[in-house]
Amino acid sequence: MKSFGYLLSTLLLAVILVSCNNKPKIGFLMDTLNIERWEKDKELFEKRVEELGGIPLVRIADGNSPKQLEQTMELIYDHVDVLVVIPVDLHASRDIVREAHKKDIPVISYDRMIRDSDVDYYVSTDNINIGELQAEYLSTMAPNGKFALLGGPTKDNNAALLHLGWMNVLQPLIEKGDIEIVVDESVENWNSEEAYEIIDNYLSNDNPELDAIIAGNDELAGGAIRALQEHNLQREVLVAGQDAEVEAIRNIVAGYQTITIFKPIDAMAYTAVNMAMKLAEEEGPINTNITVNNGHKLVPSVLLSAQVVNRQNIKMTVVSEGYVKEEEIYQ
Ligand code: GAL
């Protein structure tokens, strides 16, 4: 009897092991968790992989590109089926694709493009459009303004796309002589302290004139707002950010920030995971809605749309979609 029970439990264990072994492993190589939005991407990603019967394997590179390549090798060694990557560095991440492809592992570029590589798919929000939305909003409010541009790091492809979007809107206004760019800087590592210093330096000049600040994300917008506060200029200067961070929404309510951009992170995470699971289970076809040139090829992509969040539509956007809770904003 005892030996029958033993046999049964060994069999059960074997079944469990086999079924675990059959579950697709989806790797998620993330740049950082230092910025609020990425916590949400991570949570949604893991939840969706588990819902679809896969195993999520998440690694955080802490902004370190060689570390991200080491983590790639670890996941390849772990027999991951698909890699979803938020590249730390738009160029160095080519090696991630190269190593994965050696083992026939497909790679999906997530939020940020891996440039000049044979990456298989790209899932993101239309970043040029995000830049246009920010610049349109602020240039409508300050049609004859002096503008400061605080861009993201040069190693992040999105920073370049945002800048392109800003200039699509601002260039004709500059040429007409209506708008002047008084600051145009790249902030390394999306560092809010550096954004603070850039704006503080500018405002420390004799007679600085400033009407609007377009920032690559809410971290940079937050740094800029601190500088404005020190010079007693909060509420005098328009500020645009991106990511719909709780602090940014609070700043909008307080009148210190004009807008932020709300990206559909839930839809992005779901799209990437659905794609990854199909690839892992070889269950095509993979749906895409556009191709994006990454310098090497036209990458089949899904690009989603972002929304502007201003003081008036907070409830209709971030709150109604469950992205931010009202208690968090008005605590
Ligand atoms: C960008 C991303 C932004 C922001 C930033 C900082 O690539 O598009 O939403 O979060 O990284 O990590």
UniProtKB/TrEMBL annotation:
The keyword Signal applies. Belongs to the bacterial solute-binding protein 2 family. GO terms for cellular component: outer membrane-bounded periplasmic space. The keyword Flavoprotein does not apply. It holds the Pfam family Peripla_BP_4. This is Ribose ABC transporter substrate-binding protein. Residues 26-282 form the Periplasmic binding protein domain. GO terms for molecular function: carbohydrate binding. It is found in: Cell envelope. Keywords: Signal. Its main location: other. InterPro entries: Bact_Solute-Bind_Prot2 (IPR050555), Peripla_BP_I (IPR028082), SBP_2_dom (IPR025997). The lineage of its organism: Bacteria, Pseudomonadati, Bacteroidota, Bacteroidia, Marinilabiliales.
